[in-house]
Write a structure and sequence with these properties.
Helix content is 37%, strand content 17%. By secondary structure, it is an alpha/beta fold. Strand 5, helix 8 and strand 6 form a beta-alpha-beta unit. It is globular, with a radius of gyration of 21 Å. The structure holds NADP nicotinamide-adenine-dinucleotide phosphate.
Length: 327
């Protein structure tokens, strides 16, 4: 891909200017000028750091108040991707020193049985966080199930009370959904907490990613645009973004020429595609962004895998710990 001229890596430190420059001025010579590949935002390393902090705080909580954060994960049916996610969540919870329980329910479980289990967990003092792994089988009503978890234990942040608080800008009282919370930490690491003057474009308007990340970005003073399948001239809108977040579920949809040079790109998508390696067909995980093309244009980008995924899991632990601390 053709290089696009000199540009400043956008504000890898808070408060730095984030300007595309065509001519190198004395002022800009004081800064590091890049014509190179994007910085990779290492979600795995950041998640490991946070996980160590959570473990330390958990040990203190056990020591000082004899409270061990308890996380209950409910999985319904045999979806292989869900099984992997749940296994990873359980493993991380145990590594953080949590009390971790998993309830595996049959694919054909009745809604009444699911709600009865959630009722038990809602009143179990050893459990501070409950999550039902989505998607759930079609005969169950997802809304009824997610809304049956009491807001105080809704560590996924899907209860209307938590959504409402987040939308109202109350991010300390609410449980913030884990993926958006993880994305925000990655963005803050690149650009600082105050995103005044920056344009953020989110592709995807789901309740679990697109909408809550919009609330968080707005609270951080970014100017936010949410795009979706009906957006006109999406590449043009995306090119306006200093922060571009893709949460679509379409492999490598965001191309290099959709990206403003120097932008921070957060790739939420997780897609399995078939690739041929040495004549053999293999499955590979890719994001919603064409990573190779984006590397040539962006200032920083989160990879898939190893970006948002690990951050999502660790934010679940952070929410569960927060719930236990509120006891
Ligand atoms: P979703 O509920 O299916 O929402 C997808 C969004 O993308 C919708 O708003 C949809 O628009 C929009 N969209 C679809 N095709 C489009 C197109 N051609 N152009 C523009 N917008 C388009 O998905 P989600 O739950 O938000 O998840 C999105 C992706 O993130 C998936 O790959 C998922 O696996 C991944 N994910 C990853 C994590 C993680 O931890 N890394 C967590 C959650 C999700 P409409 O609303 O108009 O249909």
């Amino acid at each position: 891909m053709e290089r696009r001229g000199y540009y400043l890596r956008p504000a890898t430190h808070a408060g730095h200017e984030r300007h595309l420059i065509n001519n190198v001025s004395i002022c800009y010579l004081q800064r590091i000028i890049y014509m190179s590949q994007a910085k990779i935002i290492d979600g795995k390393a950041k998640a490991a750091e946070l996980s160590a902090e959570i473990s330390a705080t958990t040990a203190e909580l056990v020591e000082s108040r004899n409270i061990k954060p308890g996380l209950a994960v409910v999985i319904i049916g045999e979806d292989p991707a869900s099984q992997v996610y749940v296994r990873n969540k359980k493993r991380t919870a145990e590594a953080c020193g949590f009390h971790s329980v998993q309830h595996t329910l049959a694919e054909d479980v009745s809604q009444a049985d699911v709600l009865a289990l959630i009722d038990d967990l809602n009143t179990d003092p050893a459990i501070h966080g409950i999550l039902v792994q989505l998607p759930i089988p079609a005969h169950l009503d997802e809304l009824t199930v997610t809304q049956s978890i009491i807001p105080e234990k809704d560590v996924d942040g899907f209860h209307f009370q938590n959504i409402g608080m987040l939308t109202a800008g109350n991010t300390t009282g609410a449980f913030v959904p884990c993926t958006p919370a993880g994305c925000m930490l990655m963005i803050e690491d690149q650009l600082g907490k105050d995103l005044s003057g920056l344009n953020a474009v989110i592709i995807g308007r789901s309740n679990i990613v697109g909408k809550p990340i919009a609330s968080l970005l707005l609270k951080a003073n970014a100017t936010v645009t949410i795009c979706h399948s009906r957006t006109k001239d999406l590449p043009q809108v995306a090119r306006n973004a200093d922060i571009l977040l893709a949460a679509v579920g379409r492999p490598q949809m965001v191309k290099g020429d959709w990206i403003k040079p120097g932008a921070v790109v957060i790739d939420v998508g997780i897609n399995r595609i078939e690739v041929e390696v040495a004549g053999e067909k293999k499955m590979r995980l890719v994001g919603d962004v064409d990573f190779a093309e984006a590397m040539e244009v962006a200032g920083a980008i989160s990879p898939v895998p190893g970006g948002v995924g690990p951050m999502t899991i660790v934010m679940l632990m952070a929410n569960t710990l927060q719930s236990a601390q509120r006891n």
